[in-house]
Specification:
Chain lengths: 483, 133
Amino acid sequence: MLSKQHFIRAGDCVWEIPRTFRDDMRVPARLYADEDLLDAALTDNSLTQLVNTATLPGIIGHAIAMPDIHQGYGFPIGGVVATRLPSGVISPGGVGYDINCGVRLLVSAASVEAVSPYLKDLASSIYTNCPSGVGSHGHLHLSTAELDRVLHEGSGWMLETGRASREDLDRTEEFGRIPGADAAFISDRARERGRSQLGTLGAGNHFIEVDKVAEVYDPAVAARLGIYPGNLALQIHCGSRGLGHQVCEDYVSRFQKTVQDYGITLPDRELVCAPFDSKEGQQYFHAMACAANFAFANRQLLTHMIRKSFDQVLAGKITGYQLQQVYDIAHNMAKIEEHQINSHAVRVCVHRKGSTRAFGPGSPVLPSDLCDLGQPVLIPGSMGTASFVLMGTEEAMRQSFGSTCHGAGRVMSRAKAKKIIRGTELREQLNARGILVCAGSMSGLAEEAPQAYKDVSRVVEVVHKLGIATKLARLEPVAVIKG
Amino acid sequence: MNFEEIEHTADRAFRVRGRDLADLLLNAADGMHALERIHSPGERFALYDLEIEGIDAESLLVNWLNEILFIEQQHQLVCEKFQILELNGFHVRARVETRKCNDYQSGIKAVTFHNLKVRKTAAGLEAEVVVDV
């Protein structure tokens, strides 16, 4: 078990576990946290999981953990692992079951004050139009050919079918389509699970949240993104649903044998992996890209349905309510990127599991209108607490493979949360604070209580202080829709 | 009880015991169901025959539980009354009765291999299973 004495303080809010800590570590491990967040991380097995990731073949730099780190399975949540290509490994567990789980932020020119008389109807309409729950089915029934196009084209298919705008795609990571997708590597079972789930929210910590822009830290940049104090904003948090879960399950299961074939020894079987340039590594990458595209399309279809709800409830009542997209970002993904390491450009596979890409100004992968600003980063808080919009930085490119945190991070188990918190009481408490809640399951609501999470403001302060993302705006919730 | 929930920060986990591998599989199915949010199953539905294999006890256990989850989530069913027809090494054939469950809300996305080890104990076998929610 790790304790504070095993860490070297490598800087303000930077804690390092040297490579000598364990014989099987290939690189040191690094945690970005203040002292309290370090203490919180020491209460579960997340830091042991971080050390485990430092053993992966081909890892370079550091095994990195963000201040929202918490215990996951295999990799910790809040981890960043980059492996050198072509032979460094790719690990399905390093992406997770919910491939391309991510967040989308939309904003309106209407104020929350103008919308508030219609908020209950709006939340109710969104709850109806956006099915939720683990096994929920959507309104769209895809043929095999249509599903293949979603898997290959992601949000592009939504643009072609009138469910997205060009502006939506421009404001989506990778423009809503990860290259390299090949549906030949998706199992029939994954197709079966995904076919009816496009346009559904899912359960767990997934949500749709109507927010008020409570504070803006850089008005000029915020205005360029359409973010103004007092105005309505809306976040969508979900991923690739059963299709992504099945892709991960298929390859984690298959790779149990693959690691034996390649002679890879690991401290945890959930870390199974394959060399990126191997047949197996390539097959997983093609399948993962399909699931990632499905997730982009899923958030896009939810956006389309939410816009319908806005039209149904607000048309003719107020003006300027239409929603424009600020950005859509993944926080469970493996990406092929080029990073400067010791002044050399190196191609790497960056696993971000519960961490967010945070590319700074000048990045060639950003759309032209964001190139001088850097990439927006979306950090949802726990239910009932603030969320943040940050901007990516050049410092993130230097320190963390262009990555930053992804949310608040849990501190309390779901089992404990359910024992000590009643969903109905929590809903009443949130209502009393002016936050409307539509939820399918009261026990599910209790699991996601704000007490079960770290203070997101504190997490954000750490990354802001380190310069691996800078604060742009703070959002406060006014309505939450959950599975 | 042959299973109990154990603490896990972000996901869910349970410890399961069995006299032998067949018993462990049956009890693990019950243990997983105890974590799910299943409301009032309805009328009897079809019998399902399952045929699952793994490369070892751990992969058999994970594949078994994932198969049950798949049937339940895909068809809005609850599996009950499992019968192991044959267990040969790490290959199992089983039959399961199901009930319809129109408001099926499992809460579980997948069963993981995280730190999974099927251990021998004085009473038989034991494992700790982490599920993704």
